[in-house]
Every structure is written in structure tokens, then in C-alpha cells.
Amino acid sequence: MNRYGQRWKKGSRYLLASVLISGLWIGQIPQAQAASGPLSATVAKPSLVTGEQFRQSMKQAASEAGGSFTMPEISGNRVLRSQVAVLLQEWLGLEKSAESFRDIPDQAAYAGAVGAVVKAGLMKGYSDTSFLPAEPLTANDLNRLHDRVLGYLKPFVLPEATISEIQRAMEQGKLTSKQLVQMYLDRIAKYDDQGISLQAVLTINPEALRIAEALDQERAAKGPRGPLHGIPILVKDNFDTSDMPTTAGCLCLKDSIPDQDADQIAKLKEAGAIILGKTNLHEFAFGITTSSSLGGQTKNPYALDRYPGGSSGGTGAAIAANLAVAGLGTDTGGSIRIPSSFNSLVGIRPTIGLSSRDGIIPLALTQDVGGPIARTVEDAAILLDATAGYDPDDVATAYSVGRIPESYTRFLDANGLKGARIGVATELFLEGNDQEKAVSNVVTNAVNELSSLGATVVNIKIPHLAEINKYPSLSGYEFKFQLNDYLKELGDDAPYHSLAEIIASGEYDKTQESSMKAREARESLDTQEYKDIVLKRTSLTRESLLKVMADYNLDAIVYPTSTQPPALIGESQSSGNNNRLSPFSGFPAITVPAGFTAEGLPVGIEFLGRAFDEGTLIKYAYSFEQGTHHRHAPKWTP
Asked: For residue 126, what pLDDT is reported?
């Protein structure tokens, strides 16, 4: 227990405890005014709030939110935290609730009110064990309380809503999961099926509303399972779903419904998430423009004449356009991070082995991962919590045992960049043409922002970078054999049993015919060429990254996620080689919005770290996000 909480419980009064409470529900400590003299003389006394000032602030919050106000008049030149709790609980009609603070006697008349305001997110304890009920409200505390009450009273607004905001709205009775699902279905109908026709969503789960209603009933009876309870998620259509087709965007698999969910899908469902539907992708995840024979060409919601990136472009466009709360993509070479960059999103490519690939239609298992795509770092961290972990059907996940924190949300530190040492991979900032210069300028500004947020940035050169980039992706080697294995696992229900049969059927995107035939022509993986790539490429990339990080004492490396912004549909799209470092090494990477070009096209900055160090990357990405707030919603999908 916090030592100040212990002293309070014993009934002792300590000046330091009184000083510390000036942070009220966020634990802030006021600055000392001088370095000498007794403690009582060195600490600035906080400005206290009168009862009438508190009442007027709450009245103003009610007026701003368009709500009613019925709080009685409050006399006195100060108002205590316990009084605040009771007044808020009575005014807002909050149900009294149990609390666990050691400095609040269970028989105290205000105990239930404290539990109620804490549960509603309006107040917090100074620590997990101390509420300090007899401490007075300060002016700074009142400002924060005003904002929280205002947020509590405001009606729920869907666009850009985060997981925590949605959960709070559900707790407050403003929203049900069934209503939420319907809101997203309405937006999909408005923006994806009609109107601007993003063509991001391939399939809607016909049971989504029924599942949401059942989860609402469960919430009422037992409470939520966790942060994902009742949250609609869209997933790339190469994740197996036992209740919807899994197609990889190909006409050849339009009726293929696997018997089991992919491991990550099963984990999401167990956490209470609703799989709202399946998103378009670049067919079989071959490219980065997201076009398929089943779903057509997905558009970028920021610029409807531009590509959304790929291969997880359907998920990227859908989440950017607020067609679901968050989503899943897969990444073999850059397929989570490129669409996240092109759609001003957060995308996490986890360490190979952190999350299972079982039940994902493979492209190259040596490089394949599945991971979150979200509008905020916090939401991406919540999804990673749910999907990471050991799966006996994917032996690579055995490496994750003992290396996954209790929660990645514990790394959400707005000051996380202070004291960090970040290497800037200068060779990955290209300026060969105007498009590359535009991206480079945005990310260079983002690097300056890293510095202003407290990080030490160091320009570096990655050893053997040119040699690393000469190695190819293994998708051209492994795809045929691993796809055939996947089709075999479908059993008798498989519409086709091999890549050769798919090619013979003609039911695929003909622009990929030469690539598919080249992969089919590969006879074996038992070649020296393939073995050299697997062994030498991996070791060279890992050792080069680890060496430069050790030499410069770095915590992470940053660079542009893509060297190019979204290209015009119909023209060629390039992303450069930056996205290769993570899959070639197996190390994790996260992209976060860095800003927009002069043309209004989104740009991402990528953080890369050591194996299983996702928490550190999340900390830095969150600190950058909170310090810059570069993301804004697309104007085409208000």
C-alpha cells in the first residue's frame, strides 16, 4: 500500500499527504517554491474552491452539454472530495457502488457515492488504495472535473469514438452494443455500398445484431468481459471465420467457409468483440493497392482517386472512415503498416511469434504476421492484448511465453518519449522526386517533434542496408506450398485443392496471372537459394539492427513507413524498401500518423524495436500521438 495511504488510515495528518492531493484524481505533485527551509515553507499552497464555485462550474458543464441541473446550493469556502462525490452521485443519479479504498470506512455515508463516481470515471483515488476524502478541491482539480462531467453529460458521437469512450457510454446507459452495431451498419451502407462507395467491406456478419444483443444481456447480468465487450471489429478477409466466407479477395473462394475461426479471431470473440464483417484486400495479399476479383478497387477515404495502400487496404480504409471501431490486418512485407500510413492510422506489426498465424491464408509464413489497425495507439494496444499469446497450432508462438506483459495498455505514457534515445535512419528518407520529398518533409518534421517531446534523436546508418535490401521477399517462394497446405486443411469443403486448380479455374484477378503462374512453377523449397535467404537474410538483418542499436544505445529506430504517399488509382504505387526491416528481422514495428503532405495525403512514421519489445514501441508511439494529434477524420465520411 502507498505509504501516505497507510498514514492516513492510521488517522495521522501529514502535510505532504495534503500537498500530494493537489493532483486529486491524477496524482500530480505541485512544484516546490524554494529549495531551502522546512517543507511547509517550500510548497505552494493550492488555490481552494468554494462550494459555490464548484456548483457554478457543474452548472456550466450541464449547460454546455445541454443537460439539466438540480444541485442544491453549497455554502463554505471549501468543498471536500467526499462532498464532491456525494453531490455528483445525487445530481447525476449514479447508482451507489462498492469501493476498495483503505481510507474510506465501509460504513461511511459517502462510501457508495465514492464508488459510483470512480466507476463512472469522474473521480479517481490518489492511489489504488487512497481516496483522501477529507481533502479540499483545488482550482486545478475543478478544471479537470468540469471536463470529465462535460464529457459524461454529452451525448455519444460515433465518428472517431475510441474503445474507452464507447465503454464509458455503455456504462452510462447512453449506448448499447446493438445500437452501436446498427450505427456502423448504417455507415457502411452510406459510405461503402453507396455514395462515395469505398468498396472496403466484402462481407457483413448477418448475426452481428443478434450477437450484440446477447452481449448486452450478458453485460447487464454479469458486467463486461473487458474493454472489447460489445466492440465491432472488421477483419481482413484472409482470417478464417467459421460464420462467414474467407476468400482472400478471390472469386475462387467466395463460398469457402472454414470450420474453425483463426486463433486471433477466436481470441477476439472470447474477449467479447463482435466480428462485424470482412474487408477487401489485395487478392491473396500479393500487392499494395488493394484490388481483388471479388471486391474490386478499394478507395482511399482521404482522396477518393488514390489507393488505400495494401494489402490490408480494406481494413485501413474502413477504419479510417469510421466503419468499425478497429480492425485486423496481416503483414508479410508491409501490409499492415502501408495502409495504416496511407489512412492516418496506427498499425502494429508484432514480433513473429507474438500472435498466432493459424487460420490465416498464408503468403509466406517466414514473414507473415497478423496485427491491429486502429485510429489510436490505445485502441491498437487493446487489440494486441486480446490477440497475443501462445497457440499450440503455431509453434512460433512458443517464443512469446513469458515475454508478454500483463497489458500493453500499461505502456500508454504521454511522457514516454522523455529520456528515450531514438535512432533516425537517415538513408531511409528519400528525396529522389517530389512525392518522396513531400513524405520526407513530413517525417523530418515528426522527428523534430520527437525531440521537442523529450527524446534524444541520433542520426544513424544501418550496417549492410544495401545488402539487406537486395534480398527478396519469400512470398514468391513459399506461397504455393503453404496455400496448398491451407486448402488441404479445409478438407472436403475446399472449393479448390491447389494453386494449380485455382489457375485452371480462371476465377481470379487476371492482372495477377503471371505472378500466380510463376509461383506455381516453383517445384520445391529444398533449394540452396531458398535456404540461404531464410538463414542469411534473417541473421544479417537482425545483427545489423542490433549492432546499430547497441552502438548508439538506442531504444528504437524511426523512418518513414512508406517513401511514397498514396498514388493515383491507375498509376503505379511504390512504398520503397523501408517496410522490409521488420519482416526480414522478425522484429516489431508500429506506424503512427506523422501528418499530411501539402496535397492532404496522410504520412506515417514507423518505430522499430527489438524482439518482443512492443511495449516500448507503444509507449513512444502513444507519447508522440498525444503530443502531436496529427490524425483527423476524412472529410468524405463525416
From this structure: 85
pLDDT at residue 11, as a whole number: 34
Q: How far apart are CA 581 and CA 348, in angstroms?
A: 14
Catalytic annotation present for 311: yes
Q: Give the pLDDT mean for 502-507.
A: 98
pTM above 0.85, yes or no: yes
Q: How far is CA 142 from the centre of its chain?
A: 31
CA separation, residue 316 to residues 26, 49, 96, 265, 321 (Å): 34, 47, 42, 18, 9
Hey, is 507 helix, strand or coil? coil
Name the CA radius of gyration of the chain, rounded: 27
By percentage, how much of the chain surpasses pLDDT 90? Answer: 89
Q: What is the mean pLDDT of the chain?
A: 92
| CB distance 580 to 364 below 8 Å | no
Q: Residue 172's pLDDT is what?
A: 87
Q: How far apart are CA 326 and CA 320, in angstroms?
A: 9
Give me the catalytic one of 82, 293, 335, 575. 335
Examine the residue annotation and report whether 236 is marked as an active-site residue of this protein: yes
Among the listed residues 311, 312, 355, 575, the single catalytic one is 311
**Contact status, residue 355 vs residue 401, Cβ threshold 8 Å:** no
Distance CA 601, CA 565 (A): 7
Catalytic position from the list 178, 236, 299, 619: 236
Average pLDDT rounded to a whole number, residues 105-127: 93
Q: What is the C-alpha separation between 176 and 173, in angstroms, rounded?
A: 7
Alpha-carbon dihedral angle through residues 502, 505, 510, 512, given to the nearest 10 degrees: 10
Neighbouring C-beta atoms of residue 540, cutoff 10 Å: 17
The widest CA-to-CA distance across the chain, in whole angstroms, is 87
- For residue 575, what is its C-alpha cell? 512504398
100 is catalytic: no
pLDDT in tens, 305-354: 999 999 999 999 999 999 999 999 999 999 999 999 999 999 999 999 99
